[in-house]
């Protein structure tokens, strides 16, 4: 066995300070998550209940198997925007009749469940996850369609939602729509493009145009039921495959549909129950220092995440600022790449490129644990070829075909974010800890660079430089970049799949790995770009 030792001093002041800082950040995160849970607020929730309807989360709860976890994705979508936190849509992975499904549910208590630009991004991300991992999609529909004031942001790109449903179907990935209420105009194409549609007596309203629009267009008098009720669609149009008498019946029928899908995972679940880490997961709270400039050993994290804390390190003496090695996580084999001292040098980059190729040869998913300030700059390093070495690592990450999971623990700056499989490099899932920060560079560095450029420009024009204004501007820029680097801001923009409690890392990665193994895991046996040597 190659069980990692721990040097974490859980009785020391550094641990206590790091833990206190993390708990503060988690409390702030809880406050924001509570906003997503509150949906449209008391008034709209009460009105919804008075109508005898279940809340979106209650619908999900009745859909999934009892006592199984629901891995909610992007709960902070729209954070920091003018729209409600959560973006009037819930998305996540849940188990229905033993099958892992991608579940989406409109929240009709938030502006009638209408889709704003963030709702669209969140829904498209959910489709991407379903596609990459071959997860059946269950859509729990009740929406006012496009958020009309922001239609210019969503009408044209929003067509991708319906395109995705039929592409999923074409790829053999089942799609199921359960309509709880309004599903008009474009929304009608959700049941329209899904493989299976369930509608509910006197609840579902599925039409291209409602009675007022029909009256305007053709002069015809009509009503909701005859235009798009469940009874009509089940008996006359044939759009409804299943007629449910109420919401609970609809969810029961949806479960029966999933039970009959004959959807099989490409890879079996691991046989043995995985051994938990040797060290307490609670200690993950006290590893990342409050000040990210202080380095920490990522082996302390690995030791609290992988099975039995058992880790076979690859090239431990070479490129020591990046830790690479093999482990299992909830029984699934993984290769881990974790930043140690923050900066990536040439040897670290080459080691990463080799390691990524090895994982591809062996069909082993990769986990990237971020805490990097980027690739090393300076004359010595430029002359040593840091660009071509960094390019090697980015080439390997870009063309790797095994699933990637990224966790931003601390810093994730500059091209280091790219080399460690940042969002643009399509990791299957990407989560951030509340301690993470991500930007083109650190706020102080960025403000300093701007100041040097401004000073040089003034000198070139022969103008005096206003030192007082410079100090003010630096402070302003620093504060702006700092706020834009924080996880809630980035999560609001859908740059991750959620901000998680560090203690949940093993569970979250385990759920992701299980979902990932629904699709085949096949590495690239070649097909990398030209590696500059
Ligand atoms: N865009 C923007 N805001 C919308 C909206 C939309 N598509 N649909 C509803 N809202 C707003 C309402 O203005 C209302 O705001 P307020 O409470 O501040 O006045 C809030 O969301 C709740 O809507 P309300 O109509 O009271 O809820 P409801 O549950 O009784 O009815 C709908 C919900 C969706 C049936 C109804 O709002 C509706 O028909 N909306 C328009 C649907 C449509 O034609 N969409 C265009 C499709 S492309």
Structural class: alpha/beta
For this structure, what is the CATH class of the largest domain?
Alpha Beta
Report the major sheet. 7 strands, mixed
Shape call: globular
**Ligand catalogue:** coenzyme A
The total tally of domains equals: 3
Fraction in beta strands: 15-25%
Oligomer: single chain
Uncertain spans: none
Work out the helicity level.
40-55%
CATH architecture of the largest domain: Alpha-Beta Complex
According to CATH, what is the topology of the largest domain? 2-enoyl-CoA Hydratase, Chain A, domain 1
In CATH, what is the homologous superfamily of the largest domain?
2-enoyl-CoA Hydratase, Chain A, domain 1
Strand order of the largest sheet: 1-2-3-4-5-6-7
User: Which radius of gyration do the C-alpha atoms yield?
Assistant: 25 Å
Give the termini distance in whole angstroms: 36 Å
What is the tally of helical segments? 20
Q: Summarize model confidence as the mean pLDDT.
A: 96
Number of strands: 16
Protein described:
The chain has helices spanning 13-38, 42-50, 56-63, 117-133, 151-158, 160-170, 189-193, 211-218, 224-228, 230-237, 247-259, 299-302, 346-362, 379-383, 386-399, 414-419, 443-461, 467-485, 487-492, 505-516, and strands at residues 71-73, 89-96, 99-106, 137-143, 175-183, 196-200, 242-244, 312-314, 322-329, 332-339, 343-344, 366-372, 374-375, 404-413, 429-432, 437-439. By secondary structure, the protein is α/β, with parallel strands linked by helices. The chain has three domains: 1-35 and 268-440 and 486-533, 2-enoyl-CoA Hydratase, Chain A, domain 1 (Alpha-Beta Complex); 38-259, 2-enoyl-CoA Hydratase, Chain A, domain 1 (Alpha-Beta Complex); 443-484, no CATH class. Strands 1-2-3-4-5-6-7 form a seven-stranded mixed sheet, sandwiched between helices. Strands 8, 9, 10, 12, 14, 15 and 16 form a seven-stranded mixed sheet that branches. Helix 4 runs parallel beside helix 6 (160-170). It starts with 12 loop residues before the first helix and ends in a 17-residue tail after the last helix. 49% of the residues are buried. The model has no long low-confidence stretch (mean pLDDT 96).
């Amino acid at each position: 066995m190659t069980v990692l030792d721990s040097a974490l001093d859980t009785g020391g002041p550094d641990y206590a300070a790091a833990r206190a800082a993390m708990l503060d950040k988690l409390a702030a995160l809880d406050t924001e998550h509570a906003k997503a849970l509150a949906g449209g607020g008391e008034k709209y929730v009460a009105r919804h209940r008075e109508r005898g309807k279940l809340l979106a989360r209650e619908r999900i709860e009745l859909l999934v198997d009892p006592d199984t976890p629901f891995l909610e994705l992007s709960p902070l979508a729209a954070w920091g925007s003018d729209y409600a936190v959560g973006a009037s849509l819930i998305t996540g992975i849940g188990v229905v009749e033993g099958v892992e499904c991608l579940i989406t549910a409109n929240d009709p208590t938030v502006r009638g469940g209408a889709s704003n630009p963030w709702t669209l991004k969140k829904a498209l991300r959910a489709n991407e996850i379903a596609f990459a991992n071959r997860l059946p999609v269950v859509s729990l529909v009740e929406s006012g369609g496009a958020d009309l004031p922001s239609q210019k942001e969503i009408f044209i790109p929003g067509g991708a939602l319906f395109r995705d449903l039929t592409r999923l179907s074409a790829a053999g990935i089942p799609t199921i729509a359960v309509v709880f209420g309004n599903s008009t105009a474009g929304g009608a194409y959700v049941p329209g493009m899904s493989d299976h549609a369930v509608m509910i007596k006197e609840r579902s309203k599925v039409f291209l145009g409602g009675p007022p629009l029909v009256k305007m267009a053709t002069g015809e008098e009509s009503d909701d039921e005859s235009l798009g009720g469940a009874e009509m669609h089940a008996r006359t149009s044939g759009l409804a495959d299943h007629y449910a008498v109420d919401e609970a019946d609809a969810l029961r029928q949806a479960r029966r549909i999933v039970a009959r899908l004959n959807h099989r995972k490409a890879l079996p679940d691991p046989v043995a129950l995985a051994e938990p880490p040797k060290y307490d997961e609670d200690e993950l709270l006290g590893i990342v220092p409050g000040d990210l400039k202080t380095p920490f050993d990522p082996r302390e994290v690995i030791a609290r995440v992988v099975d039995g804390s058992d880790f076979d390190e690859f090239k431990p003496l070479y490129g020591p600022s990046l830790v690479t090695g093999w482990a299992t996580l909830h029984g699934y084999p993984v290769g881990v790449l974790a930043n140690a001292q923050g900066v990536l040098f040439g040897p670290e980059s080459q080691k990463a490129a080799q390691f990524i190729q090895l994982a591809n040869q062996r069909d082993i998913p990769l986990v990237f644990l971020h805490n990097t300030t980027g690739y090393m700059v300076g004359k010595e390093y430029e002359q040593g070829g840091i660009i071509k070495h960094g390019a090697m690592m980015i080439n390997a990450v870009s063309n790797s075909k095994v699933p990637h999971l990224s966790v931003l623990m601390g810093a994730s700056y500059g091209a280091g974010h790219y080399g460690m499989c940042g969002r643009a490099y399509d990791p299957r899932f990407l989560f951030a800890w509340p301690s993470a920060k991500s930007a083109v560079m650190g706020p102080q560095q960025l403000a300093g660079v701007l100041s040097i450029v401004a000073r040089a420009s003034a000198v070139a024009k022969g103008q005096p430089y206003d030192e007082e204004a410079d100090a003010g501007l630096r402070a302003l820029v620093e504060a702006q970049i700092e706020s834009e680097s924080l996880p809630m801001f980035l999560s609001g923009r859908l740059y991750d799949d959620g901000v998680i409690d560090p203690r949940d890392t093993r569970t979250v990665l385990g759920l992701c790995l299980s979902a990932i193994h629904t699709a085949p895991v096949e590495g690239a046996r070649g097909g990398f770009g030209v590696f500059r040597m």
